[in-house]
Design a protein that fits this description.
Strands 6-5-4-3-2-1-10-11-12-13 form a 10-stranded mixed sheet, with helices on one face. A two-stranded antiparallel ribbon has the order 7-8. It has a two-stranded antiparallel ribbon with strand order 9-14. It is globular and about 55 Å long. The protein is an alpha/beta fold and 316 residues long. Strand 2, helix 2 and strand 3 form a beta-alpha-beta unit. The protein has one domain: TIM Barrel, CATH 3.20.20. The protein contains 11 helices and 14 strands. Helix 1 runs parallel beside helix 2 and helix 2 packs parallel to helix 3.
Amino acid sequence: MALWKVNQRCNFRCEYCFSAGVNPYREHPACGRHAPGDIARAFDRTDRSWWISMTGGEPFLYPDFVELCRELTRNHVLTIYTNLSTTNALRFAEVIDPSRVRAVNASLHILERERRRRVDRFIADVLHFQEKGFEVRVDYVALPELFDRLDRDLEMLAAAGIARVRLQALQGGYRSRLYPSGYGRREREAFRSRSIDDKELDLVEHTHRFFGRLCRAGQRFFYMDIQGTMRRCPIGARSYGNFFEGRYALDDRPRPCPYPVCLCSWYGTELAGGPRQGLVRVFNEMVREGISLALDRGRLGRLARTLSRRFRVGPR
């Protein structure tokens, strides 16, 4: 598995965006540097079949994104995290084989959509993908101010024929509160009653803790940035090399997780199933990753909040 942040540019301007410090108006200079065929061959040369999850930014703003996906799906499968707002998304649905796409995770930023008067367009595009045979999951971004209208919005989506809708928890800072811990009792109950994804519920309930457990991130999974630099996971400190240049080395065995909080629990629950390791092994892993952690709870908490703001990735 690979989680690839393909670009940084986005056409939405959401107040709660996790990409703090990134200019969403300007694309990263490395984006699109490699031709679609060259990228596909980089994966092919590994002699493995890859599940590639593509996020951004807004991935559909990547140069020649549909052609890139066409090349990748010859031998590999994809998951796309998108706001499903660009015109080339419909072309993707026409030319890409849905059997080569695990899921299209379409984030519904409903306040941004209403501001643009484009909620109906979002629904139409989701239905188009469904009709073409794609597994589409709508991720309703659960801002705290939306819970008064939550039932009405979900009923609207269901009545329109959208098959799967998941509440998507905020992560990081929003209006002077840190999420998901900032959700109150009513919001947590809504996640319990409406959840179609145990991993998202784990995130809200704070059960996604893998510190000290053997994890296959770095062995069976890696995170890759726009430039092709590989790390064991989105908050990994140590580079594994550059994938596009073919200069990298993956781990030959699982290693203990050195992080007090997993910021990518969707993958963590799949990868960190091993037994807990002793403190010596965990400390050695921290040293290997270049991590200096304070042992008192307060400073660990501040570290976790900083990491959440700086390194959150995915379809938010």
